[in-house]
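Internal QA ticket QA-208
Title: Verify multi-chain structure generation after dependency bump
Assignee: T.L.

Test input:
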Amino acid sequence: MRLILLILAAIACILLSLFLGSAPLSLTDVSAALSGNGSELNQQIIWELRLPRALLAIFIGAGLGASGAALQGYTRNELAAPGILGFSACAALGAVVALYFGLPHLVTPAALIGAGIGATLILGIAGLKKSAGVLILAGVGVGALATAITGLVMNFAPNPWALSEIVYWMMGSLRHADMSGLFICAPLTLLGIGCLWFIGPDLKSLSLGELTAQSLGVSIGKVQALLVTGVALCVGSGVAIAGAIGFVGLFVPHITRMIFGPDPARLITRSAIAGGIFLLLADMVTRAWSGPGTTLYLGILTSLIGVPFFLWLVVREVRT
Amino acid sequence: MIRLSAKNLSSGYGDKEIISNISLDAKPGSLIVLVGPNGSGKSTLIKTLAGLLPAKQGDVLIDDQPLQNLDLRVRAKQIAYLAQDRQAMPSMNVRQILELGRAPYRGRLGQISHMGEVAIMQAINYADLKNFLHRPFSQLSGGEQARVLMGRALAVDAPILLADEPIAALDPYYQLAMMEILKAETSRGKTVITALHDLSLTEKYADEIWVMDKGKVVFNDVNNNGLPAELVEQVFKIHMIDGRISPIKVGSV
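Actual output:
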């Protein structure tokens, strides 16, 4: 029942977002454009701008939410998230390198390659001793390395234009969202969420500790490989399209946990939907807030919401 | 009946060998207690027998089949393992934790089968959990938590149960309760191998005693005739007379 309400909320948010933008469209305009009627301009606004942007927010948010839920389930640590475990930083490094060389059209594949290399490194180090603790250390370490190299690239940016491009890109935004981006992001995200969904039951067994989970037939190596692949696909495709968007993967699973209970397998799908809704709402706020010439960046907004939440979690952890 | 045995088994962590050249045969339906000082290799042996730690040499055999040839889920249905540290998700309730014992039987979407429900009901009875079935794990006392995790291991309904120090840090009431649960399992035909530190409980409950020292099984008392005094002195560096233990004066061994 609560799942159906969540899905309905997502659909309602998508529909609502179609009305938001600089060109005011009425209910009849939107419904006509959606069904392929109405003026060509309105159809273009809906099909080429607003709908892809809304769907991209849903998919990217879903990937981040599912990744956070799976990482928190695997590490049995509620502070784990794709941003903290280095995946986002590796994807960002790939994109920044593309921008450094003045190749903005290669940002998407570069971010995906960055996420892939990062994931391979993290998995390689974590594979030395297959345990959640080692995965966290490997993720934090690889992420710090990626951030350091990103700083180096910015340090040697060939011109102010490249530097400003990198800085804007790192603040995260969906303003360049289009259908071609959706066609890249959606299948990769769905594949990633599929990997994470597949290990859901194993994450449940892992709540009893790694040894007990193994005794119940769980292969830690397989779970770790699917987890890292799934997170890399979700985060890589999201960062490739929208730049760095932090903290969604950290706090969305917490909110879903409050509503749906602690079962880590169920949380993956629920956090995916909730993450989509959250990112779409956040993007709608940035669109409503941004006037001509002043853009509120999506990544800035999610961090402004996410960081206080993170600190609250830390305080709560200390108190209990 | 399914028989667990080991042949020339060596195992350890990294390059370090903790147990070496152990051969044993667990008689089906018996309660086998593994005793030995800290660091003698009890946990390592239990983990290796459970297939959780790969053997460096030799084999663990289930009915003459090497354990490493078995599919993980097939193995999981044959050997239940109760870990020494009592970990579970704090917000999960007891019933949800017991259901995890059925993991080897469930598919990705799978509901618990009728057989699984029966196994869970039995585990609830055997471990006496019906009074707090819906309480979250974090709200239970240490003894109750230990019993819940024991129930989780019983819910697997495997013919072999390996329990690593199941009574560590429990009060006497729960120590006896846990030992009674293990003993009752053997009366239902299960083979139980458990590591203990309490020598008097060992003599009270064991059908068979394996004494470990420095990575080897140094004594195998198949009928539990009681641990010989010289052995206890040599291995544990204590005296034991009529189940009472006392220290040996330093330097006298």
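Spot checks passed. The mean pLDDT of chain B is 92.
Status: verified.
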